Amino acid sequence: MKILFDFDDVLFNTRKFKKDYFEIFKRHGVSKNVFDECYYDSLDEKDIKHYDPTEHIRKICEKIEIDLKVFNEEIEDFLRDTSGYVFKDVLPVLEKFQKTELQILSFSKTNFQKTKIYNSGIVNFFDQIRITNQMKGKVISEMIHAEEAVKKQRIFFIDDRVEQLESVKWKCPQVATILCDRKEGRYHDKMNNFCDYGINNLEELEKIVRR
Asked: 162 and 67, same structural domain?
């Protein structure tokens, strides 16, 4: 069995993380409007957008003056330990599975995302950590074709974005797709025909995979 987890909003309280992340900007005089306006590329029309912190800060610096040395030190300090944002139900469930059964598949291949994940305190529970800018259906399809043993296993994929679940189901119909809609999440996508199951927490996930 393989269980592939999205990171943000499934394992990690990204809404609270982003709120606390903004507080650093706020201390340097950045308003919420400017923070949000510069957060994503305005020309990016995709539903699932790529966050680039370097570009975000560059655009903010075009609008207001920031002491970048002090600011960057505060960002580094903030990212040094992100374990406090892991949802409380995550560790008790991960502990019930073998490491070889678990993987993280996260969107947005940046050092920021990598740091956020690797400093969360949970990476040792996972056999592999995959961070990508591709749709996850492509990544999982390549994984299945590259690893002969995986083809014979049950595979579950959990994400909070329906678009990613759709991409997996199109490429790999044999994969069980699970929409995770936590109350603390940011998006609350609605289930459709590409979602085999829906959950609100990881305790519900365990019941599904143990059937």
From this structure: no
Sequence-distant (6+) residues with CB within 8 A of 130 are: 103, 104, 105, 106, 139, 143
Residue type at position 24: I
For the chain, the domain total comes to: 2
Q: How far apart are CA 107 and CA 4, in angstroms?
A: 13
Of 23, 57, 79, the residue that ends a domain is: 79
| Average per-residue pLDDT for the chain | 92
pLDDT tens-digit readout, 146-178 = 877 677 799 999 999 999 999 999 999 999 999
Which range marks the domain in which residue 32 is found? 15-79
- Structural domain ending residue among the three candidates 63, 79, 95: 79
Distance, in Å, from the CA atom of 141 to the CA atom of 196, rounded to the nearest integer, reads 18
Q: Does residue 89 sit in the same domain as residue 128?
A: yes
* Cα separation of the two ends of the chain: 12
- Tens digits of per-residue pLDDT, 10-28? 999 999 999 999 999 999 9
For position 53, what pLDDT does the model report? 84
Q: Which of 71, 68, 64, 78 is nearest to 31 (CA)?
A: 64
Name beta bridge partners: 154. Answer: none
The dihedral of CA 113, 115, 116, 117: what is its sign? positive
- Global confidence as pTM: 0.92
